[in-house]
Request: fold
Amino acid sequence: MINLSGLTKRYGGTTVVHGLTLTIEPGLVTGFLGPNGAGKSTTMRMILGLDRPTAGTALVKGRRYEEFRHPLREIGALLDAKALHPGRSGRAHLLAMARSNGIPAARVEEVLATVGLSDAARKRAGVYSLGMGQRLGIAGALLGDPGVLMFDEPVNGLDPDGVRWVRELMRSLAAEGRTVFVSSHLMSEMELTADRLVVIGKGRLLADAPIADILAGG
Ligand code: ADP
Ligand code: ADP
Reply:
């Protein structure tokens, strides 16, 4: 599970995340809905220890990300594909992540097969389409078999089959009892995947309820 407590981020004079307090529970897909610029990525980056909160805390299973010796075994995430090294192959990216997290190399082949990149993984990341980059990012998120997963706009750049595959993946990860936190700027996407919806606008929590209640206008 993920616990946010008074989580706040300011850049210069602008507060982009305002005191978010919420718990993201296991066994559910929790959708994180808000327009572009609402603060979704910044929140996820703070959970992953990639941005330092200005105030408040973000805990995964009761600990800060930095406290984990092998973080990929605890939390996997799909963030911005721009983090890839263009000259390195997809497989090399995953092997490096596996090595630094004590994950056997054979697991890399498993997750590449899961995301349908077994053949393409020898190509350098610089030639990947957006959809292939998304698939590689999802493979990275699954690599450590973590109990907590975060996906930032995961259907971006995928073809219709890929979109359906991602939706089913989210559902099955939650059905296995994992914590799944997934962002989107589209309510239509959230309706198809989320059990619960956390809505933010301009960095502030606007709603947090079961999706059925939100659809009923509650
Ligand atoms: P979302 O993921 O919901 O689209 P972001 O978290 O990416 O929103 O951005 C929230 C706000 O924070 C935006 O106004 C964005 O311009 C700003 N922002 C994000 N990163 C930085 C940064 N490194 N420096 C300054 N402003 C930033
Ligand atoms: P490196 O340059 O060492 O390969 P990255 O720039 O890829 O590291 O990642 C920066 C940080 O983000 C690291 O602490 C890494 O553990 C974390 N990270 C990268 N990818 C993921 C992921 N898929 N899931 C969780 N954490 C990740």
Remarks:
- Helices lie at 40-47, 90-100, 105-115, 130-142, 160-175, 187-193, 211-215.
- The chain has seven helices and nine strands.
